Each structure stands twice: as C-alpha cells, then as structure tokens.
C-alpha cells in the first residue's frame, strides 16, 4: 500500500470542478458506485447550481500533499441529512477515504446522518463502518436509475443504522443491493439511486478506502 500522505479538507473551489468531472467519468468508479457519469455541461451546472449554490450544503475538497484527490459533501434531502464522497481511482486503497470522512464528521454534526452505497462496493462500506455507520433494520425496494448502460437491475434498499460515533452520535447508512449486471459505466463516493439527490453532488459513495 502506498503511503497515505497528509490528508486535509478545504472548501471546494471552482478550479476543483474539472478534476471532479474527470474522476466521475472513470468506469471503475461508476461500477463501484452504480451511478452513471454526467456529461460535462450537466455536471458543471449541477455543481454550480445545486451544490455550490446552496449554502446549506457542506462541501469539502479532499487534498493529499497539495493534490486534489476527491471530495466529501453533505446536504439535505427529504428531511434527511445525507453524506457522499468520491475519490479518483488512483487514490483508492490508501486510507484516504477513511481519514477524510472522519475529519468531515467532526464538522458535519447533524445526526442521524445517511449515506447510500452500492452493495458490491465493499471498500466504501468498510470506510463507512470504520467511521461508525452500522446496518439498521428494514428493507424497501427501489429501481436503479435509468441511464445506467447495460443494466436493468432492480435494487433492494437496505437501511443501515449507525451506532455511536464522534460523541455518541447516531448515524445511519443506506446500503443498496441489486440483481443483474453491474452497470458498464458506473463509478463512486458515494452514492445509490438513479438520479442524485437534488442538493447533493451525487447519490452514491464511490471509493475503495
């Protein structure tokens, strides 16, 4: 495993968006997140209007030794507070996701907190579990987003409830499991579902850390 380097968080800047755009186009990341890449115009419009343009969102760029490697963000959706993160493929497997999420949770103090993760994204599930997220009881079904190529999979939505973390705080994790082929064009932080939540950067959590 490569050395971790110094992992820090800072506010997202406009100059970070082209890097995030390339990260979310990586096929391995799309498969892990079960979430399709956005086209350039749609990606930049979403980030500028829905993410950066909403003051209630907490959005942080993940930096390792002065290099932008991904983001972690939280936002409100349907009465829930959600968290998602995404790392470039080159930065998986180095503990960066875990370090960044732990730091982020010290600033994002809303509890419970929710995350969506594809059931086959074992690395991201481990990141969330290391940070205190736990499986909760209850199941429901959801249809995987249209727009994922080569996939007509149904997804089962398993609600994961976290135990104590960062001052006995209760968190929740929503975990997605599905049938059928993984999408040929998927990636992520950190997210699940067909369309990303209106206020968030994505609906999946894509990382292997």
Give a description of the structure:
With 209 residues, the chain is of the alpha+beta class. It has one domain (7-205): Gcn5-related N-acetyltransferase (GNAT) (Aminopeptidase), CATH 3.40.630. 22% of the residues lie in helices and 31% in strands. It has five helices and ten strands, in the order βαααβββαβαβββββ. The chain has helices at 17-23, 27-33, 40-51, 96-107, 122-130, and strands at 7-11, 58-64, 67-77, 80-87, 116-118, 139-143, 154-165, 169-178, 190-191, 204-205. The strands form three sheets. The protein has a four-stranded antiparallel β-sheet with strand order 1-2-3-4, with helices on both faces. The protein starts with 6 loop residues before the first strand and ends with a strand. The relative contact order is 0.24. Mean pLDDT is 73; it is low at 137-172 and 175-198.
Overall strand count: 10
Helix content: 10-25%
Shape: globular
Strand line-up in the sheet with most strands: 1-2-3-4
Task: Write a concise synopsis of the structure shown.
With 209 residues, the protein is an alpha+beta fold. It contains 5 helices and 10 strands, in the order E-H-H-H-E-E-E-H-E-H-E-E-E-E-E. Strand 3 (67-77) and strand 4 (80-87) form a beta hairpin.
Fold topology:
Layout: E1 7-11, H1 17-23, H2 27-33, H3 40-51, E2 58-64, E3 67-77, E4 80-87, H4 96-107, E5 116-118, H5 122-130, E6 139-143, E7 154-165, E8 169-178, E9 190-191, E10 204-205
Parallel strand pairs: 5-8
Antiparallel strand pairs: 1-2, 2-3, 3-4, 6-7, 7-8, 9-10
């Amino acid at each position: 495993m490569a050395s971790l380097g110094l992992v820090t968080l800072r506010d997202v800047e406009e100059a970070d968006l082209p890097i995030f755009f390339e990260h979310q186009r990586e096929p391995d990341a799309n498969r892990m997140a079960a979430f399709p890449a956005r086209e350039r115009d749609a990606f930049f419009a979403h980030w500028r209007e829905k993410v950066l343009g909403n003051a209630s969102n907490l959005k942080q760029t993940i930096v390792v030794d002065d290099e932008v490697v991904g983001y972690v963000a939280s936002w409100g959706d349907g009465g829930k507070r959600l968290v998602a993160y995404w790392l470039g493929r080159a930065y998986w497997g180095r503990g960066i996701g875990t370090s960044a999420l732990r730091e982020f949770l010290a600033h994002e103090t809303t509890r419970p907190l929710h995350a969506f993760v594809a059931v086959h994204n074992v690395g991201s599930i481990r990141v969330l579990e290391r940070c205190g997220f736990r499986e909760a009881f209850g199941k429901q079904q959801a249809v995987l987003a249209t727009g994922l190529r080569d996939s007509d999979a149904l997804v089962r939505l398993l609600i994961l409830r976290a135990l104590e973390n960062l001052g006995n705080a209760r968190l929740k994790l929503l975990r997605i499991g599905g049938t059928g082929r993984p999408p040929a064009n998927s990636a992520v932080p950190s997210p699940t579902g067909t369309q990303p939540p209106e206020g968030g950067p994505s609906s999946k959590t894509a990382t292997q850390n």
